[in-house]
Structures are given as C-alpha cells and as structure tokens.
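Data availability (excerpt). The following record was deposited with the supplementary files.
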Amino acid sequence: MATKDALSLLEPIEVEEPMDARAGIRFLQKKMSIKKRSITLQLKDLQSDLASSPKRSRTALRHKSAALKKVVSELRGIVDEALELEEDEEELIKLEEYFVREQSRALIIIGEVDEHIEERLDEASTSFHSGQTALEQYRDQERNRIRSELEKIQAQARITKELEGELNSKLEQLDLGERAQDFDEYEATLKNPPLGVSRRPKTTFNPTEWMESTLSNNLPNTFHAPSPSRSSIRSEVPVFDGNPLNFMNWANMFESLVHNTHCSVAEKMGLLRASLGHVCLKLIDGFTNSPADYGEALKLILHRYGDPQELRRAHLQALRDIPRVRDGDPKNFPSFADGIQGHLRVVIRLLPRGDGLLTVLMDELSHKMDREHFFHWDNFAKDLEEDEKIHAFGDWAMERARRDRYFQSDVSEGTRNRNKLKAQVNGIESKPVDRSKPCQICRGMHKEKNCEKFKIAPTPKKREMARNFGLCYLCLESDHYSSICPHINTWSCRKDGCGGSHHSWLHMEKDNTKEVGPSPKKNDSSVQLNSVHRNGCLGVIPVLCSFNNREFMVNALVDEGSDTSVVSESLVTKLGIRRPKKTAVRLNLVSKEVDQHLSSVKFDIRGPLSHDRSSFQALVLTQVCPNLKPLSWNKKKNELAHLEDLPLMECDQQVDVLIGLDHGDLLVPLEVRKGGPEEPYAMRCKLGWVVRG
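Predicted structure:
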C-alpha cells in the first residue's frame, strides 16, 4: 500500500516534466520572434540611413551597427537555451538554421555599414554630439596622438637646444670688432645640421618660413656690406599697413630684397622699420639693432599679422563685402566675377576640402547673384556634390563673365551705331558724355540738388524740375531712376512722418499729390472712401507682393464694387518696378466720369499663409484709401465667438492695394463663417480670410 501511494505521488512529476520543457521552448520561441522583429526594424533603419541624403554621421552608423550586433548576440543566447531544452533532432536543426539565417541578414548590412564608414574616413567629423561613448573615445584617441607628437617635439627641441648652445658659445669667443662667420658658411651649417638633428620636410609652400627659421636661429652681428645694385632695389620694398591681405606680399618682398642680402643686421633692422606703417611700427618700438632684437621683431610681426586664421578671416570678409549683382545691369556680373577670384582661391587653399565654412561661403556667394545668373548656376551645379560646388564656382563665374562681356560689347556697339545714326538724321554731332557736366538748372559746376535755385524753389516747382531734368525722386541724382535707386530700401521721406519713397524736399500735402491729369473734385474722391468712417469691417487683409526677388507685406482692400484694381506709387517704388508711359484712362465714379493719365504695372501677389503666387495687374495711383483707419483684431475677434479661432492678422498700416473684380479669381469664396444678427461675417478666399460687417 505504501509502495502504491509512493508511485501515485511520482506519476504527476513524470507527466509534467516534458510539459515544462515544451512551455520553456514556447517562451524562448516568443523571445526569438521579438528579437527577429528587432533585427528587421534595425536592418530597415540602417538601409534607410545608408541611402539618405545628406549622409548620416559615421558615429550614428557605428552605434546602430553595434546595436544590431548586440541583438544578434542576444538571439544566439536564446537559441542556445532552446537547444538545451529541445530533444527532437529535426527541431534542433531548424533552430540552428533559424539563427544562421538571421545572422546572415545582419552580417550583410553590418558589412555594408563598415564599407560605407571606411569610404568616408577622410571626411571631417560632424557628430561629436551623437553619443557620449563616441565622444570619450575620440578624446582618448586625440589625447594619445597629441602626447605622442609632444614627445617627438620635446626630443627634437632638446637636440635643437644643444645645437643652439654650441653656436652661441662660438659667437661668444669672437671679439666684438671681428667679423662673424661668413654668411654662406653659416647658412650651410643651418642647412646641414649635425647628425641627430631632424628637419621637418617641406610638404607645402610656406611664404613665411624664412621668418620662422630666423626665430629659431641666432643671427651673427654683422654680414658683408650690400652691393649697390641690391641697395637700389631695396627702396622698392612696400610699406606694410597692417592689413592681413597685404602681409604675404610684404613678407615675400622683404625676404627677397632685404632679408636674403649680405647686409648687416643693423641695416636690416632699419629697413624693417622703414617698411612698416605707423600702426605696425608700434609693435617693435624699443627694440635695438641687435640680432636678438631683429629676430624678436620678426617673431612679433609674424605672430601678430601672419596667423593663417586671421588671413582666412580677412579673405572671407573681403568676399562678403563684395556688392550684390544688380538685376538688369550687364556690367555688374563681370565685376563681381573678377572681384571674387583671388580671395576665393586663397580661401579654398587655406580650408580643407569639405569644411563647413566653404558650404556657408558658397551659399552667401550664390545669393549675391541676380536672378538670371543664379538660375544658370543652379542648373550648372545640380549634378555636383556639395563640397565640389565651391571649387567649380570660380571657373564658372569667369566663363559667364566672359560671355557677358562678349554680348555687352555687341550691345554697346549697336547702341553707339544707333546713336550715331540718330545724330546724322537730326543733323547733330554725337559727343561723348562728360562726367563733369554742369548743373542743368543754372549751368554752374555743381549737382542739381546743390543748386541754390533748386533749393529756394517751392515744392511744386522742385517736383517739376526733378521731372524735367531726369532727377531721381529719392536721392535727387541724375544718373538713375527712383525705381532702381541704391537707397530705395534705406531712404524715405522724413517730413511729418510721411515715410514715402521720395525726398523730403519733394513732399507735398495730400491735396496736392496728384501730378498728372485733372484733380477729382471733393465729392468725387469721397465716393471711393464714403464707407471709411463706418464702424465696421471693410475687408482689409495683409498680402505679400513680390517682383524681382523683392517682397513686401502690405494691406489690401477687397472691393467687389470696383471693376479695376489699384496699387499705390510707394509700393511700386519699393518693388523697383519701372513703370511704362502713362496712358489715358477713364475712371467711372458715382457722379461722373473723369479722364486721367495713369500707368499700369504687373507683379505677383499671394496670401501670408500660402505659397501659391498669382499674377496681379493694377493701375498706379498716388495713394489708395488714405483715410482708412486700421482695426485691432486682437481686441475685436475675442468679442466674436465665430471669429475667435481664425488666423486674422493685424492691419496697422496704410492700404497700398485695392483688389477689384478684374481679379475675381482671387476673391472666390471657399468657406464662410457667420455669426448672429448685425455681427460681421468672414469669408476665406485664395488670399486668406476677409471679414466684413
């Protein structure tokens, strides 16, 4: 009986043992499935990074590759646990095949990552922030490298110090009145140092190497007297004014005409002082004519003005100071191309290939071009890598400038022929333009804006003179129009807070601003603005107007009651639009018709929240709705629940554009918001939300 009870106790254990092993295998299979999904996701992520543009950082790729290796290692551990529990031979083979298959998938992409990183070893690192571990490894590597180089330099410095002591002891043995060693023998000693003294190989041309070598050697007290021919040439040494851009030229000339001659150190020191400007001369004040002071003076000058970073910064600043290329000026781009060549090639030589500063410089130079040349360059460089563009830009600019000069010469020749033909037809002789031409008002030798007759004339007379003599309305010069005035973005009328695009001397009151055509009567002008004084919303919205890379945000009045769109003169001037001749236009007012001579212009218009531009043509008037008062939407829309969430913008400036039904496609309602009785409603059109009521 006891034996039977004992066997009954053992039976559940014999049944449950394979069940526990099978459950363990199922649990491990779930873990293997999770690891498989993790491997799949990491494989996709790495494949995306390898194909991405711009390229991902090498440090990030190393981290992801290491993470993938870690998952594969964890999968190996799970498979080993399953092999210990599994007893079926077929299942054991399936587990091994499963792991080999997943391992092969991972190893393929890991190999691709390693090849990708190896190909990019020459690139500058940009991913120090990608991980703390990578940053610490980089610091350790740099620390070891610097320590190794420092030990080499210290060993070389000890040997050089010993050589310096030997040479100093030889010089001390000579009497002050005796002549020092011959310069050629001394130079041969420096060129062929004793055994054990190493010299750094010349891998690149260094214009200031003679100054650096002078610092590490003690010059003798005297040398042979200079020859007369060399003394006469020495007068041609330029004076260095402290500009880093001129330092290399001065250093090369001084080395050739002074430093390498057989003259005494005292004479070299005197010529050094004579070749320095007032600012630079302060640097070596107090030095004597001794060899030690001569070497120390060269050391100070080299460290102060010969720093490669200062030189690079000076050339970069010179490139940034080159003026932009003006649209429509055929002579401007060749001047731009010539101005960048020398500075650009020096900067490329000073910076390593792929440096971030070159990319920034390329972006700045491309934005200095006008629209036509920018599109040509963009089309030319579309197949180039980012680090190749700056190297190709200089040659491309020279070729484009050569082409522009060729066509410019043809245009100039054609213009001269046409002017000559006109002169013959009209019976006059064509004469060259005199740059020092007299005043057109009084024939005195001064500019028109400095003429006393012009200054004392009343404002209407001043405007008439400016128009008759072709003066710019903004700066009063006679060689350009106000639409292309170089001061168009910085100058404006300062009288009574006008802010208009005209000179303060040409400012007129509102009732006198009409220049051409009959002035509308008081009751006619009030027809256009008779709704201004109502306590409601007239549909004023902000819009973006653009022309030739210039874009301004202005206020526009949406008026379906007008069949013609209008734009203000001030906006046309800001956009730099050259207006055509005025034509006769009949304006249909409420009370009668009025004939005026007006210009018509065309530009692009879009809403502030849209990128879809539309062509917009309108008549040009002096002002558009001058008495329209702005409405504060920050206070108004909070009182109206149906308008509270709309992106309404403040319209706190004057209205410069009136949009009529001739551009009805811009005013088609796309959505409408309405409130209660006597509350304003909102309409969304192509230009944005318009509120009325």
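Summary of structural features: Residues 6 and 435 are 127 Å apart (CA to CA).
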